[in-house]
Design a protein that fits this description.
It is globular, with a radius of gyration of 20 Å. It is built from seven helices and 18 strands. The longest helix is centred in the C-terminal third of the chain and has 19 residues. A five-stranded antiparallel sheet has the order 6-7-13-9-10. It folds into three domains: 87 residues, Uridine Diphospho-n-acetylenolpyruvylglucosamine Reductase, domain 2; 127 residues, Uridine Diphospho-n-acetylenolpyruvylglucosamine Reductase, domain 3 (2-Layer Sandwich), CATH 3.30.465.10; 65 residues, Uridine Diphospho-n-acetylenolpyruvylglucosamine Reductase, domain 1 (Alpha-Beta Complex), CATH 3.90.78. The chain has 306 residues and is α+β, with helices and mostly antiparallel strands.
Length: 306
């Protein structure tokens, strides 16, 4: 009854689009996943806070999701509420004088990158081709081995249930490899990124180099979630460890280790979450047997897959 009561309390009462049994396969880059019992696309801060208050009071689990580019949803779906940030979290503006870009968490990272380039601001070229939203990128400190988004964060606007809105300076947050010290319930709403003046021609050149590298080394034609495992400490990354075990091209059902990049699992068209998990277990176990390295997932799980 908690979910039904929450749906009745929120539908038509806040600036949000509320739906039931939303197919998550339509909202993830994997194109995999059963339905979310409820989905709330909230367009204002008040709608976000009210939604979380109602869900909490009704004992309904909730999670904030961006574009689902790093998410594997269970075949059975998620019996809680998926929250998606909408209109008021979709602004982006560059300041050439201040050498900053300020953007809402729902803005695609690609749009943040191109906005900076158009304003002749350099510092985000490394992020060219990284999927997902700015909020998701910050939450996982997305980037490469040498550069990551946390290095560019000047300040954040964060909502913490039970506490309220907070402004955090980037220097107050610890940034690590695919990790930051924001709390598990902290929701990034907006970020200001500190960049530097640059020449448009050089910026475009760096972006093209980065995108070409991704295009040549990563599978671009099939659904995936990007890297499924974090790179471990040591000379070999996860892809090389998996490849050394002879697993490039290994498949279970509709899921397959990419023949282009061994740390990607692609959906060949009919993959299930169970298929992906089976391939992940094989990759993990073979690497551990061969090297002793315990690969840790980079992909996030939602539903019973976790």
């Amino acid at each position: 009854m908690g979910l039904y009561n929450a749906y009745l309390a929120l539908s038509g009462a806040i600036d949000a689009d509320i739906s039931r049994d939303e197919r998550m396969s339509h909202r993830t880059s994997y194109r995999i996943g059963g339905p979310a019992a409820m989905l709330a696309q909230v367009h204002t801060i008040s709608a976000l806070t009210r939604t979380i208050d109602v869900l909490t009071a009704q004992g309904v689990d909730w999670v904030v999701v961006g574009k689902g580019s790093n998410l594997l949803v269970a075949d059975e779906g998620f019996d809680g509420c998926v929250i998606v940030l909408g209109r008021d979290f979709s602004h982006v503006e560059a300041s050439s004088e201040g050498a900053t870009v300020c953007a809402g968490a729902a803005v695609p990272l690609s749009k943040v990158v191109t906005t900076a380039a158009k304003a002749c601001l350099t510092g985000l070229e490394f992020a060219c081709g990284i999927p997902g939203t700015l909020g998701g990128a910050i939450s996982m400190d997305a980037g490469t081995r040498r550069e990551w988004i946390g290095q560019r964060v000047e300040s954040l606007v964060v909502y913490r249930p039970g506490t309220g809105l907070m402004r955090r300076m980037g220097s107050e947050v610890e940034w690590g490899y695919r990790w930051c010290s924001l709390g598990p319930s902290d929701i990034v709403l907006e970020a200001t990124l500190a960049l530097a003046p640059g020449e448009r021609e050089k910026i475009d050149g760096l972006m093209e180099v980065r995108f070409s590298q991704r295009r040549s080394t990563q599978p671009m034609g099939k659904p995936s979630c990007g890297s499924v495992f974090r790179n471990p400490v040591g000379p070999k990354g996860a892809a090389r460890l998996v490849e050394d075990c002879g697993l490039k091209g290994y498949a279970h059902g509709g899921a397959q280790v990419s023949t282009t990049h061994a740390n990607f699992i692609v959906n060949n068209g009919n993959a299930t979450a169970a298929d992906v998990l089976a391939v992940m277990r094989t990759m993990h176990d073979r690497v551990r047997e061969a090297t002793g390295v315990d690969l840790q997932p980079e992909v996030k799980f939602l539903g019973r897959t976790s």
